[in-house]
Amino acid sequence: MHVFSRAILLKMGFSREAIAASLAYFDSYRTADLPQNLTQAQRDYFGAHTYERTDRPRGQFFHTDWPEPGRPELSVKSSGH
């Protein structure tokens, strides 16, 4: 694999950042477990969505009551999607 400097990429009409983002997107298809915990936490906080945990059985969903002190985690029956 060739390593291109930023000047060469810009001369060719490519952005190094765009290529890096594209490679990261491609890598996400090759990875079994993606680091989506921050995204799921934000969705749960702002929209009361639920999430699955990788350390629990598949199909078991949770919702965290984020504003409450101690942040109680509640097990729910369906994902609510």
Which consecutive residue ranges, at least 5 long each, have pLDDT under 50? none
Task: Determine the number of helices (DSSP H or I, runs of at least 4 residues).
Answer: 3
Largest sheet: 3 strands, antiparallel
Shape: elongated
- How far apart are the termini? 42 Å
Rg of Cα set: 19 Å
For the biggest β-sheet, the strand order reads 1-2-3
What structural class is derived from the secondary structure elements?
alpha+beta
Fill in the CATH topology of the largest domain: Single alpha-helices involved in coiled-coils or other helix-helix interfaces
Average pLDDT for all residues: 75
Summarize the structure in words:
- This protein is an alpha+beta fold and 81 residues long.
- It has 2 domains: 1-31, no CATH class; 35-81, Up-down Bundle (Single alpha-helices involved in coiled-coils or other helix-helix interfaces), CATH 1.20.5.
- The protein is 41% helix and 12% strand.
- It contains 3 helices and 3 strands, in the order αααβββ.
- The chain has a 3-stranded antiparallel sheet with strand order 1-2-3.
- A hairpin with an 8-residue loop joins β2 and β3 (73-76).
- It is elongated and about 55 Å long.
- The termini are far apart.
- The relative contact order is 0.11.
